[in-house]
Amino acid sequence: MSIQQLIRTYQKRVDQQLQAKLSHSSIEPTLQEAMRYGLFNGGKRVRPVLVYLVNQLLDGRLEDADDAACAIECIHSYSLVHDDLPAMDDDDLRRGKPTCHIAFDEATAILAGDGLQSYAFELLSQSALAPQTRLDLIRTLAQAAGDRGMVAGQAFDLRHVGQSLTLEQLEAMHNRKTGALINAAIEMGYYSAPAASPDSLAALRRFGDAIGLAFQVKDDILDIEGDTETLGKPQGSDLEQNKPTYPALLGLTGAKEKLAELHQEARSIAQSFGPKGSDLALLADYIVNRDH
Amino acid sequence: MSIQQLIRTYQKRVDQQLQAKLSHSSIEPTLQEAMRYGLFNGGKRVRPVLVYLVNQLLDGRLEDADDAACAIECIHSYSLVHDDLPAMDDDDLRRGKPTCHIAFDEATAILAGDGLQSYAFELLSQSALAPQTRLDLIRTLAQAAGDRGMVAGQAFDLRHVGQSLTLEQLEAMHNRKTGALINAAIEMGYYSAPAASPDSLAALRRFGDAIGLAFQVKDDILDIEGDTETLGKPQGSDLEQNKPTYPALLGLTGAKEKLAELHQEARSIAQSFGPKGSDLALLADYIVNRDH
């Protein structure tokens, strides 16, 4: 199976899982509709795909990775819904569709995000995995999402719009804003494979650091070179908003060199897992070569 | 010890625990300041007090209840920070102090609320309790906070401002908006006492339903009869905003009768626990007789 086919298989799998799990009823159907709207927004499902890939790399059972895959996508989706709010990035469009607070209203978008976060932890607490595994998954996800992880990255980003950052600051920001959840996806894939050797975790973490950063550098490059229609957001919007980016700090050529380095690093870690690591290596290729 | 003294003891205990736990560092000190601002807002700590009271009623160890007490207060505080936002209730003051988005800014308040929610689950996942107990605590809190609990109650409330509700709808709303977390506090107290008999849980749940509703009926009455300064918010604000309340539906006398019934029901359940239930009965008295 090509990596594109494998990614599509996993994307479909997590979508089906989320559809089935989120079908419970509530006195607030509108709220749940907004949660589903935030979840099914045409996202690439990079984090769930990573959970599944690592689970398979470590000889896990795919069904043991479903709750982790769904939970991490709930957290990622909630963060996008809140990020798009007028008080935050104030975005009306995401992947070419109205953002949640435009399609519904601001209050509903805030509450839908809040509900998605709670739901992520509810899901993990109730999975069929061993109790200690469930706790490892919950701890990993909560730490990555919280005030030393993703949320800190968002706050740092918002406070520095229009300001110049050092490369160190930019990296510290992205390590939290995107890197924390990318790494959590990898760790959660590891925990979902109970027979995995603890030695593999350190290597997987380094892989996560490399592709997390590569993902962001690539995003910054796409903002300059990408096509507005393919991106689903206006090309050049980072530049226009004077956001700190890798190309702004390193130049476009420097950013591309940085991306190539990170790509190479990720590839060589993936290859250290032998033939089984080839899907991870292909995922690194996919992240670096994508056009949106 | 009088119930007032006991409540003060538990209030102080949870405050000290929260202070100690929230002292970790982050690249975003402002975000963490906002989280602490939302947490240390002069709240009555009703939910942590309930966790401790039930823990003691069931012969638990207080130290086993600390993480549950802190986690539920993090969830409650996050919900207040988000509730006060301009897109939600748009409140500038809470207990006489500027609300979080006034003291900081909207984006910081949104992120601080998000971070408090993550932190609640992080805390519970890392506590020293048995793995299954931690999972019971996480599941209970996540369900109570989520889209069939507190968040559904908030959404329902916002959608019905200025509309008349039936008594059934008003109760369904409060059961979620406030009742869900009150009941979660009681269940979490139960889970923090590992030797507790499962039989006690059903009675405790009925106690939770009664005082949860009593708490809300009392709030509605205080809005009419309370003193602006003692309340920390303008007296009569529910009436002015045409919010559905018990006095609006039942008349002030009817609301007071309802409160007396719920009080009596809570008292008799508390007494069914024998002499050890007296603190719970006194807490019911406190909720019904408070002036703010």
From TrEMBL, chains A, B:
Q: Which GO terms describe its cellular component?
A: cytoplasm
Check the record and name the PROSITE patterns matching this protein.
POLYPRENYL_SYNTHASE_1, POLYPRENYL_SYNTHASE_2
The record, for Pfam families, names:
polyprenyl_synt
Q: Which InterPro entries match?
A: Isoprenoid_synthase_dom_sf (IPR008949), Polyprenyl_synt (IPR000092), Polyprenyl_synt_CS (IPR033749), Prenyl_diphosphate_synthase (IPR053378)
GO biological process: what's one of them?
terpenoid biosynthetic process
What SUPFAM superfamilies does the annotation carry?
A: Terpenoid synthases
Molecular function (GO) terms listed?
metal ion binding; prenyltransferase activity
Which cofactors does this gene product need?
Mg(2+)
Q: Which UniProt keywords apply?
A: Isoprene biosynthesis, Magnesium, Metal-binding, Transferase
The record's listing under NCBIfam families reads:
FPPsyn (NF045485)
The entry sums up its family as follows: Belongs to the FPP/GGPP synthase family.
This protein is called Polyprenyl synthetase family protein
Q: Which organism is it from?
A: Neptunomonas marina
